Amino acid sequence: MRPLDDLAILALIKDPSTKEKGYRQLVEQYQVRVYGIIRKMVLIHEDANDITQNTFIKAFKNIDKFKGDASIFTWLYRIATNESLNFLNKKKKRIFFQIDDHIMKMENYLEKSPHIDGDKIEVLLQKVLLKLPEKQRLVFNLRYFEELSYEDISTITETSVGALKASYHHAVKKIEKEIKEE
């Protein structure tokens, strides 16, 4: 299938005779990007797959609530980031571990995972990102890796543009400091 614009996808989904085709198009068009932002938040491939699936299930269940005041992409990212943050919060409560222990476990995962490829600087960057607060890491990932505008990130996170700029700036400073120390 070739990419369709948001209105065409919504039209397919709203028509009972093409609803399934519309959903397939939605997943095909956005799954890789949604998975990417989730993976950057949770790191573990299997967790990212589960959260991606939950994101699309939630989107399918709530497609009638989509107002169209943002793009489908922005709406899906919002669901994905909320699902990722909820997952991380539940994981922390369920396991009840020290944050330093969690960071150590995730750093170990980064070094040994067959799903993480890249050079030493990429692995180092991922390790440093683990030390950021989750919301700050999310803002950094959306701005740096996904190259989203502050306005789009504001829509996704329901945070003011000014607060996002400050959060991104603080994240960059922390990252620079950590990398220099390494």
Question: What can you see in these coordinates?
Answer:
The longest helix is centred in the first third of the chain and has 24 residues, at 19-42. Helix content is 77%, strand content 0%. The protein is elongated and about 60 Å long. It is an all-alpha fold. The protein starts with 5 loop residues before the first helix and ends with a helix.
Helical coverage, percent range? over 70%
Report the β-strand fraction as a percent range.
under 5%
Query: How confident overall, as mean pLDDT?
Result: 85
Shape: elongated
Q: What's the total count of β strands?
A: 0
Brief rundown of the structure:
By secondary structure, the protein is mainly alpha-helical. Helix content is 77%, strand content 0%.
Write the layout of secondary structure elements.
Layout: H1 6-14, H2 19-42, H3 45-62, H4 72-95, H5 99-112, H6 120-130, H7 134-145, H8 150-157, H9 161-181
